Amino acid sequence: MNFVSSNYGSNMDFYLRYNNFWGVSGVLAETRFYSNTGSNIQPYTSNWSFANIYINHDGYSLPSISNDMALGTTIHEMGHAFGLAHYNNNQYSIMCQTGYGRKVQRVQKTDNDAINQLY
Fold it and tell me: In this structure, is residue 2 part of a structural domain?
């Protein structure tokens, strides 16, 4: 990643949001994908130019969310920006959602293998 002062020329940007951004509670973070014109797109149906990762301050501030869990969620969202989908069948993959019982908070061999397969 390179530092840029705007999202022009950047591929992955992070933004802090609150529960009202989603209209529901319980969302810790989300990655959204955009075309080169800035339109929000579905990542598995077309190519994207950049991704925004939205971090929920309210969610990360909960007493039940440790710093390690928050870091794992951020890494999970970065996995999406690199092109990885959820892998909820493997609780030992960073790409397993927390709601499906993810047991790890760091990239695992299975995640590295998935990145190597993509690139």
Answer: no
